[in-house]
Amino acid sequence: MGRKSGRFIVFEGGDGAGKGSVLAAAAEALRADGFDVLTTREPGGTPEGMELRALLLSDAGHVWDQGSELLLMTAARVQHVTRVIRPAVASGQIVLCDRYVGSTLAYQGGGRGIALPLIRQLHQDFVGDYWPDLTVLLDIPPAEGLRRSRRRLADSATDEGRFEGLALDFHERARASFLAQAEETPERFMVVDAGPPLADVQADVLAGLRTWLQTSLTTG
């Protein structure tokens, strides 16, 4: 199978939007539809990326300069795209990824205030300007999303709460950035309200993905 049948789909959104659960449900349903699906996430996706994930998301006291944070996120992405995502898409797989460069634009750009042209230039120079075919943006007011995410972290005892510990206005800026990205390239985004019950959100996303895939794979 060639590139024509492979697609790269990213799930983005603020903390607590339900990306992981929605992605998992979509992957299961698309596999049942007969698609060859690979799921992955950022930071992560490779052994090197998982080591960087532990450093970047842990709330155990790491204090990163915002420039260092950006460069580490980008380094993890270079490994991920080169070793996992591009080969999978080229082989014909449907790659579903939990976060990608949209999150860097939103968190390190919108949230931290790093210049967006710098983030885009790094993406161009080191990631080959490789963008998703489709981004599913799960949109939720940050206050509600943070309540969900902090509850999940407490229930799971997961040490990945570094960004959840940031002030609400940081997350408001990140949300504004996500929505601005969707407005800038609406043909590459599917914006879904993540506020309703999870089952409803999963159904909405799956219906949208099936329609998009049918059109995308037909037109090439």
TrEMBL record:
InterPro entries: P-loop_NTPase, Thymidylate_kin-like_dom, Thymidylate_kin_CS, Thymidylate_kinase. It catalyses: dTMP + ATP = dTDP + ADP. GO terms for molecular function: ATP binding; dTMP kinase activity. Keywords: ATP-binding, Kinase, Nucleotide biosynthesis, Nucleotide-binding, Transferase. CDD domains: TMPK. Residues 11-204 form the Thymidylate kinase-like domain. GO terms for biological process: dTDP biosynthetic process; dTTP biosynthetic process; dUDP biosynthetic process. GO terms for cellular component: cytosol. Its EC number is 2.7.4.9. Pfam families: Thymidylate_kin (PF02223). Phosphorylation of dTMP to form dTDP in both de novo and salvage pathways of dTTP synthesis. PANTHER family: THYMIDYLATE KINASE, UMP-CMP KINASE 2, MITOCHONDRIAL. Belongs to the thymidylate kinase family. NCBIfam families: DTMP_kinase (TIGR00041). This is Thymidylate kinase. The gene is tmk.
